[in-house]
Amino acid sequence: MLDKLLMNYELAFAVILFGVGLCTLLFHRNMIKKIIGLNIMDTGLYLLLASMGYVEGAKAPIIEDLTNIGEVADYINPVPSALVLTGIVVSVSVTAISLSLAVRLFKKYHSLDLDEIYAIARRQEKEVF
Amino acid sequence: MDFVRNFPLFSVALCLMSAVLCSVLGAKPAKWLTLSVQAVNCCLSASVAAFCLCTGESYLYPMGFIGAPWGNELRGGVLEGLIGSSAALVLCMSVLGGVRFIKRDILPAKQNLYFLLINLVGAAVTSLIYTNDVFTGYVFLEILTLSSCGILMIRDIGRTTLAATRYLILNLMGSGLFLLGLILSYDITGHLLMQSMAGSFDLLEQSGEHAIVASVAVGLICVGLGIKSGLYPFHFWMQDTYGSATPSSAAVLSGVVSKGYIFLLIKIMCRVIGIGSPLLEGARFILLVLGILGIVMGSVGAMRQSSVNRMIALSSAAQIGYIYVGIGLGTELSLAAAILQLIAHMLTKPLLFLAAARLTEVSSGSPVFKALQGSGRRDPFAGAMFSAGAFSMMGIPAFAGFSAKLYFCVAAVEYQDLAARWAVLLALAVSTVLNTYYFIRTAIRIWSPIGPAAEKPPRHELAFVAASTVLVALNLVIGLWSGQISRVISAGIEMLS
């Protein structure tokens, strides 16, 4: 069991990162910490993806000299790298939207603690109805 | 004839181009552009469905110059065309019927941005429906999450911002789990295109290799998409989200967005893993149990609400539970029932949200049941539309909701496992009774005699009348010709598998 874990240490580390991020996203009350958790979760996923395409001793699949292409095994798998890049773009957009929500929440409720914000919102709702 | 094959690409491209144009147009031209593009989209997708029905086969559409297995692909089929055209039509009607509320709730300077976001929702849903590449599915899943969060938070009030935050957090959790499932699947199959992945999953199933990883991956994909679509117990964001959004946004979110996620799940289950595959057994069982719980608990939750918006929102949890029961049973008949329910719910929920908004408007702006007393008499057309939607939700014959429930009953009766059969039938019975209770209670309240303070009936806008009439008419068409429609759906499921 332990030797398998050591063999796949990237996978184990990525899953731990994902778990830490997911728990922070779900259970932390502070909006900014939730956003940090989201980024940790995404980083875990990208690490997992990048480690899949990595080949020990191989190089990036960029061919500079057409007369000396070499073997397929000389290059890493480019698909996961492309997926990671796409994922990072998605992640940045999600972070931007989340931060804009955090700014709006702070402007309206003067707090970033979601429990506190819910309490204020409930109080305001009771006053209206 | 083969020109039709390009239509899925045209649908996505049209929405994206329209979104770009909306950013520089004024609110009025942006509105008309959005409505026209969605109407054209509906026709394009209907043509794809008709084309595949006539030729009797689906087709793959390679994007760019790089073919499979490296390039990206779209896939046209009967189901894709049918769901695509329904989604575009409902998107169009939701915006048209709620134009007045868009003007009321959104700052004039931001109204063109609202239509931009609607176009992005259209592009993302269309892509989710037509894609043949799971990673493209993930990217558009996130675009759909962000754009739907946008149409929610554009109504700049505190409660909506809070609802958008909760919606975003839950959706991001779902996206993360879905992506993890996708990465694990890619790790063991080495592919991202659906048919190539399906081939690898077949080989893995035969050899028994990576069985645990495959089951975990499949489970994560199902749970991720379940969370995003509001499957019980991850439905608690619905009441805040649908209750505080502008009515058009609530209609779009409940009618179109959640269905995009569910259709992607059905597509992955049928095309990639195989609905009868042993790898799916565990996931199907969990979806069945959660679906049954969702049907009952969603109805109980809706019954306990004190405002009409929240009641309609929570009844969505029950209606989505039906769809997951159909997926969980995993037979051809139950899948057809699930798709029929998906379309029925797509047509009914926006109608209810739009009509409820009108009724609220003539009740001093309060959605609380007490205030709604007699609102149907103050606005008879909105009252009639709300009642029609309620009849469909209850399962009154001639409405789409009835046909879907009937097919679920038949699918459950024909199911082999006795415990599952009775559990589904019992849940259907309990939910029908509860649905009838809370919708009839609301209908009685809105039609009950008003006191002396009767308000002057509002002027009927053509947009709302047209949109709600189209939604009711389609509801009746599906209810009355459910036999023919279910045959089309069955043909689509056969092509999908």
Short structural description:
By secondary structure, chain A is mostly helical. Chain A has helices at 2-7, 9-27, 31-53, 78-109, 114-128.
How would you characterize this protein structure?
The complex is a heterodimer of chains A (129) and B (497). With 129 residues, chain A is mainly α. Chain A has one domain (2-55, 76-128): Helix Hairpins, CATH 1.10.287. Chain A contains 5 helices and no strands. Chain A has helices at 2-7, 9-27, 31-53, 78-109, 114-128. The model of chain A has no long low-confidence stretch (mean pLDDT 88). Chain B has 497 residues and is mainly α. Helices cover 79% and strands 2% of the residues of chain B. Chain B contains 21 helices and 2 strands. The model of chain B has no long low-confidence stretch (mean pLDDT 91). Chain A binds chain B through residues 18, 21-22, 25-26, 31, 34, 38, 41-42, 45, 48-49, 52, 79-80, 83, 86-87, 90, 93-94, 97-98, 101, 104-105, 108-109, 114, 117-118, 121, 124-125, 129, and chain B through 70, 135, 138-139, 142, 145-146, 149-150, 153, 156, 158-159, 161-162, 164-165, 168-169, 172-173, 176, 179-180, 183, 186-187, 192, 366, 368.
CATH architecture of chain A: Orthogonal Bundle
- Give the integer mean of the pLDDT values of chain B: 91
Q: Assign an overall shape of chain A.
A: elongated
The poorly predicted ranges of chain A are none
Helical run tally of chain A:
5
| Number of strand elements of chain B | 2
Features of the shown structure:
heterodimer; A: 129 residues; mainly alpha; Helix Hairpins; 5 helices; 0% strand; B: 497 residues; two-stranded antiparallel ribbon; 21 helices; globular
How do the strands and helices of this protein lay out in sequence?
The complex is a heterodimer of chains A (129) and B (497).
Chain A: H1 2-7, H2 9-27, H3 31-53, H4 78-109, H5 114-128
Chain B: H1 7-22, H2 27-55, E1 59-63, E2 72-76, H3 78-97, H4 99-105, H5 111-130, H6 134-153, H7 158-189, H8 194-207, H9 211-229, H10 237-244, H11 247-273, H12 278-303, H13 308-329, H14 332-361, H15 369-372, H16 375-378, H17 380-394, H18 400-413, H19 418-447, H20 462-480, H21 482-496
